[in-house]
C-alpha cells in the first residue's frame, strides 16, 4: 500500500514538472536552431573588402605554390565523363573550346583545388548578380585543370551547371595581372559576372591569368 502511495506521489510530481520540462526542452531547441540560423546567415553574408583581399591573397599563393611543385602524373579527365552535382560537388564548369569539364567545389582551399576548380565562397554565388570567382591550378599536364585556359578568346562560351540550373556566360575580357590585383573580383551590382583565375605563365608564374565573362 505504501509503495502504491509513493507511486501516486511521484506521478503527481511528474505531472506538475512536465510543463516546465517541456518548456525547458523547447527553449533549448529554439536556442539551438537560432544559433544554427545565425551561423548560416554569417556564412552567407557578404565578406568585407579586407576579408576578400586576404582570401584572394591566399588563393593566388596556393596557385603559385602548386605550380612550383606540379608533376605531370595524371592524364586529363575525359570531357565526356559524367560528374554528379551533389555532395561535395556544387557545380560543373564546361568550356567546349578547350575540352574542359571540371567539378566545382565550394571554398578555394588547398585540398579542394588539388583535383578540381574551386568557387571562392567570399564572392557572389554562381548565377547571381555580382562577381563569382572560380580558381584552379594551371597544371603542366596538357589539358588538366586550367592548363589550356590561355586558349580561351573573347566571345567564347563558358557553361556552369549547378543543382538548380545551367548558366551560360560569354567571355568579354581577358587580362594578365599582378597576383595582388584584387580589383579583378569587382562587380557592378548589375551584371552576373564569372571570373576564372589561374597562374601565368605556365612555368614559374609571376602573374595571374584572368578570364571575365557575363551571363547571357
UniProtKB/TrEMBL annotation:
Protein name as annotated: Class C sortase
Organism: Paenibacillus borealis
Tree of life domain: Bacteria
Keywords: Hydrolase
Gene3D superfamilies, sorted: Sortase
Amino acid at each position: 500500500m505504501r509503495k502504491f502511495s509513493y507511486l501516486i506521489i511521484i506521478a503527481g510530481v511528474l505531472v506538475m514538472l512536465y510543463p516546465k520540462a517541456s518548456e525547458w526542452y523547447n527553449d533549448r531547441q529554439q536556442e539551438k536552431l537560432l544559433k544554427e540560423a545565425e551561423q548560416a546567415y554569417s556564412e552567407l553574408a557578404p565578406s568585407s573588402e579586407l576579408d576578400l583581399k586576404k582570401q584572394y591573397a591566399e588563393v593566388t599563393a596556393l596557385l603559385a605554390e602548386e605550380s612550383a611543385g606540379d608533376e605531370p602524373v595524371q592524364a586529363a579527365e575525359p570531357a565526356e565523363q559524367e560528374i554528379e552535382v551533389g555532395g561535395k560537388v556544387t557545380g560543373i564548369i564546361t568550356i567546349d573550346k578547350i575540352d574542359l569539364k571540371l567539378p566545382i567545389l565550394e571554398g578555394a582551399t588547398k585540398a579542394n583545388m588539388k583535383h578540381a576548380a574551386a568557387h571562392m565562397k567570399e564572392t557572389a554565388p554562381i548565377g547571381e548578380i555580382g562577381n563569382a570567382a572560380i580558381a584552379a591550378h594551371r597544371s603542366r599536364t596538357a589539358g588538366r585543370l586550367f592548363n589550356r585556359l590561355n586558349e580561351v578568346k573573347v566571345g567564347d562560351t563558358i557553361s556552369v551547371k549547378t543543382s538548380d540550373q545551367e548558366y551560360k556566360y560569354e567571355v568579354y575580357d581577358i587580362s594578365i595581372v599582378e597576383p595582388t590585383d584584387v580589383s579583378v573580383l569587382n562587380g557592378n551590382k548589375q551584371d552576373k559576372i564569372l571570373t576564372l583565375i589561374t597562374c601565368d605563365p605556365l612555368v614559374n608564374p609571376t602573374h595571374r591569368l584572368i578570364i571575365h565573362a557575363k551571363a547571357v
